[in-house]
């Protein structure tokens, strides 16, 4: 399989450190990957973590697999200013954005199998003129002109063993969520999730449960009408097409062990509704992935960790899980 591309994220955070540590703890099962980053910054990340590290600058992604066993391959993307752990600067925004763009480009060129994105600090990028709500929307734009047989996203999903949660709205203020929840949005998101469960996770007859927006699923309209007017009609439409999908269910009863055994994924209506339960269940092992794209993109499910950057204590579990999921989905799509 072609190597995985890993964009550097914010070099002032923990991203490069966890990538370096993941390489030093690699096993025979670890999919080869290369970093799109400043090679000197990668060396400094290893030094901060107290790790003996060989960095091999490559001029093309195809070289990554050959050197991965003995050195960490890096496709050099220079920073404008040397990073200071815990102190992000807009001066490096262009390099951070450029690494994401280059990662997508390597997949488009057939040089990489998937993209794993290390965490960015959106506020830092906004200060430099970045106009996208986040990684998810930016990556979607970069591959918007690529053909894809399935329904289009982007749809954000968090996944771990025993729980997958997708989002109908992503980076939106809570006060705007109700207005954003149209039948068209909920239907398209559900179609993307159902397609991904089959194509990317190999589930022949996926079971999708819809989370209610309001407490008690709206209590028959007494606590809100989004379930009656938007969510449940979409569920009825998709059930008529043969999909296994529920009406809106109260979110406070969806995530205990017995409930999780009854479905393959949840479609949550807003960001925290979906992310709180999965992070409570498996904070260090969950993966963020973007559904409905013609490329495979995953990410750790945590942020930049500026408060612990440079201390050598960042947990690598979510990044390792993101690598594995990217490799698994890419291999399944290629089969």
The tally of strands reads 12
Order of SSEs: EHEHEHEHEHHEEHHEHEHEHEEH
Number of helices: 12
Strand order of the largest sheet: 3-4-2-1-5-12-11-6-7-10-8-9
By secondary-structure content and strand pairing, the structural class works out as alpha/beta
Spans of at least 5 consecutive residues with low confidence: none
Rg? 20 Å
Morphology: globular
Measured distance between first and last alpha carbons:
11 Å
Helix content: 25-40%
Quick recap of the structure?
The chain has 335 residues and is an alpha/beta fold. It has helices at residues 15-24, 39-48, 64-67, 93-108, 122-127, 135-142, 177-180, 183-199, 226-240, 257-260, 271-281, 317-334, and strands at 4-7, 33-37, 55-58, 72-76, 114-117, 155-160, 163-167, 207-211, 244-249, 265-268, 287-291, 297-300. Helix 1 crosses helix 2 and helix 8 crosses helix 9 (226-240).
Explain the layout of strands and helices.
Elements: E1 4-7, H1 15-24, E2 33-37, H2 39-48, E3 55-58, H3 64-67, E4 72-76, H4 93-108, E5 114-117, H5 122-127, H6 135-142, E6 155-160, E7 163-167, H7 177-180, H8 183-199, E8 207-211, H9 226-240, E9 244-249, H10 257-260, E10 265-268, H11 271-281, E11 287-291, E12 297-300, H12 317-334
Helix pairs in contact: 1-2, 8-9
What does this structure look like?
- By secondary structure, the chain is of the alpha/beta class.
- 37% of the residues lie in helices and 17% in strands.
- It has 12 helices and 12 strands.
- The radius of gyration is 20 Å and the shape is globular.
- The mean pLDDT is 94.
